[in-house]
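To: structure desk
From: M.T.
Subject: fold request, one chain
Message: Could you run this one when you get a chance? Sequence is below, nothing fancy, just the single chain.
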Amino acid sequence: MFKMTPNIMRNLVVRKSTRRYPAEVREPFAKVRGELVNDIERCIFCGTCEIKCPSQCLAVDKKSCVWVYDPMACVYCGVCVDSCPAKCLYQKTQYRAPVCERLTIRMQGQPRKKGKEKEKTQEAPAAGAGGPEVDEPGGS
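Reply: Done. Structure tokens follow.
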């Protein structure tokens, strides 16, 4: 007990080494991996991010074009960002703000056209009199 007394007295006088987090926020480092963001317009719903994710916080439904992300389970490792073939995933340099309840991010995208369907939609306006392009829902 007497060996700890000098250490206890020094800790009472010295400045605290921790900060009061929500009140005092420190600027992040230069190459910090922060909040995960998906540019859903560029996403091809291949499911590579879901397969590569070590914490299994991502889920991709290819048929209904839904991308689901659980930020509470994410470890912000960046493996999904590095493995995305469409480069639609990126990480901000800021961390997600603290929340009191569990949050799940669900994003609905548009189905991508296959090679032959894409050619037909590109040829159709050229053959017509310049009418508006109409995407038919549910095309596979």
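Reply (cont.): The longest helix spans residues 115-127. Let me know if you need anything else for the meeting.
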